Amino acid sequence: MRKKYVVLVVDAQGGGLGRQLIMNIRKELPDMHIIAVGTNCMATNNMLKAGADEAATGENSIRVAGKKADFIIGPIGMMIADAMLGEITPGIATSIAQAHAKRILIPFSN
Question: Over 60: is that where the pLDDT of 110 sits?
Answer without folding.
Answer: no
